[in-house]
# Entry
Amino acid sequence: MSNWLSRLALTTDLAIDLGTANTVVAVRGQGIVLDEPSVVAIRRGSRPTKVQAVGREAKDMLGKTPAAIKAIRPMREGVISDVDVTEEMIRRFIEKAVGRRPLRARMLISVPAGITQVERKAVRDAALKAGVKEVHLIEQPMAAAIGAGLPVSEPRGSMIVDIGGGTTDVAVISLGAMATEYTLRTAGDAMDLAIQQYIRERKGILVGLPTAEKIKMKIGSAHPLEEELEMDVRGRDALQGVPRSEVVTSVDVREAVAGCIAEIDQAVRKVLEETDPELASDLMEHGILLAGGGSQLLGLDAHLTEVTQGLKVRCAETPLHAVVHGVLVALEQLDTYRELLQ
Ligand code: ADP
Ligand code: MG
# Structure
């Protein structure tokens, strides 16, 4: 390849949604090129930390890892628990997504709304170390709003509820900033745990978290369904220790996750209460935008309409990609959105 051509090939603009459960990478002009769990498998006790695998390969090791390997989710709580591991994860995902050091790339990364300056710096440094030329950060609720085409730069309030794996972000955005924001550390993971516990206590069988998550995705709900659902769940009898299956219904699962949903309701109410009345009144018109994988829980929209006494609730078109989609839009119009970036 001639010199100028190879340089051209190295110019890539990347959009990254660094989520607590999933990391999604998109390339300008190409769309999504990588969508994998934010999981890293590391060698136990290695100094410096030796990363064995990232993403899907590492998630498959969760719970089944041989003693020498430990699978961790460095972004689990919406905060970075281990800077080095996060850095390595970002570096490997970039490498996997574009296959080489993206030397001339500009990168826009969405980060959880609640992270600290130190954590922001860590994310930025990780991207720079991976060889990127220019890095900007954007907050996830802002990205979700841009992706959904909400008028974020105008003096009109828009509310976003983004339910991910580790955190639920509730924000009201106006004039290109978050007017009110609350990060709740209860989201999809907490629902999985609640389902696991419910099934142990009420059905007497032990299931792993991956099974609890499958149950949530298949028959989980936040509002009574026209036709309630059920599924056969296989696990280990809590007393006898033998394999056994039980029928679990959507009514069961709703009861199991009710506590988590109540916390989300409270966060929404809190943000509404703290929002300037003028902005809050805009929400009557625009309603709430739901994003994130957890927002796919059946009936959540109807439930939140009830909780807010009638606000319209709209679900993002592709909840799991709403944020990266917005990051890509912001990247494509970097000059328009520059002042919204961190
Ligand atoms: P994050 O942005 O924190 O990485 P995501 O937006 O990728 O999180 O969402 C991941 C969460 O969404 C997980 O907890 C997953 O179980 C949950 N999820 C995915 N699909 C569904 C579904 N159909 N119903 C309920 N929860 C779901
Ligand atoms: Mg997210």
